[in-house]
């Protein structure tokens, strides 16, 4: 009798856990399906959100549907620093899409309060599921302590595919030039257009270095 009750409690607990895990994803999927059926609804919602005050938008960051994405996108475009304390907790979300959306928003806003939380992700190693997003974000923010991680990323065999070029471009440091040249040499035969793009970035960095010397 006791064993049967324990089994029943375990079954109910398992069901509750399953519902907790599935429900947010289901809500998100359903909301996207509604918008896919009628894209005008999505455009109208985006337009209306652009006129909402930030204090209203931050309240929508807790919902499990596309309104979350729209609200976060508007706050990021506004570079609303007041929203940062509401975005930072999203870095601990159990859902990857929410964490990554939050990281990209923090990069767009560029507030220094995001630097240490993002660095903590890098220090956990490149196997962390949010490592690449955090590295791109800190590069966009030109956070100097992150450069060593970008340099390591650019030395990897997958450097032409892992976003290193754009992160090195964001930093714009003279130390980036040899790394960019190495990546260019890897792709110049198979991807000449990409190689030309890298050459342009190298020229831009060099010209900026000349400007710095001239100013000094």
What is the fold's blueprint, element by element?
Layout: H1 2-37, H2 39-49, H3 54-57, H4 66-78, H5 84-87, H6 96-109, H7 115-123, H8 131-140, H9 147-154, H10 164-171, H11 176-187, H12 192-215
Helix pairs in contact: 1-2, 4-6, 6-8, 7-8, 8-10, 9-10, 10-11, 11-12
Which term fits the overall shape?
Answer: elongated
Q: Quote the average pLDDT.
A: 83
What Rg is obtained from the alpha carbons, in whole angstroms?
22 Å
Oligomer: single chain
**Beta-strand percentage?**
under 5%
Which structural class should the secondary elements be placed in? mainly alpha
For this entry, give a set of tags.
elongated; 216 residues; 2 domains
Model description:
This protein is mainly alpha-helical. The chain has 12 helices and no strands. Helix 4 packs parallel to helix 6, helix 8 (131-140) runs parallel beside helix 10 and helix 10 (164-171) runs antiparallel to helix 11. The protein is elongated. Mean pLDDT is 83; it is low at 12-23.
Provide a short characterization of the protein structure.
The chain is an all-alpha fold and 216 residues long.
């Amino acid at each position: 009798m006791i064993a049967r009750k324990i089994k029943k409690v375990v079954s109910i607990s398992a069901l509750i856990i399953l519902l907790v895990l599935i429900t947010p994803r289901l809500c998100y999927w359903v909301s996207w399906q509604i918008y896919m059926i009628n894209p005008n609804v999505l455009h109208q919602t985006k337009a209306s959100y652009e006129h909402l005050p930030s204090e209203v938008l931050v309240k929508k960051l807790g919902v499990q549907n596309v309104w979350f994405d729209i609200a976060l996108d508007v706050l990021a475009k506004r570079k609303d620093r007041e929203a940062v304390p509401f975005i930072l907790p999203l870095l601990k979300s159990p859902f990857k899409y929410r964490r990554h959306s939050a990281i990209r928003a923090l990069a767009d806003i560029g507030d220094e309060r995001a630097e240490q939380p993002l660095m903590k992700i890098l220090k956990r190693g490149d196997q962390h599921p949010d490592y690449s997003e955090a590295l791109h974000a800190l590069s966009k923010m030109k956070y100097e302590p992150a450069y060593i991680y970008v340099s390591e990323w650019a030395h990897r065999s997958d450097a032409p595919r892992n976003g290193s070029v754009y992160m090195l471009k964001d930093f714009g440091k003279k130390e980036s030039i040899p790394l960019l040249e190495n990546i260019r040499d890897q792709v110049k035969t198979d991807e000449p257009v990409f190689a030309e793009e890298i050459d342009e970035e190298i020229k831009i960095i060099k010209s900026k270095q000349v400007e710095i010397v001239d100013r000094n």
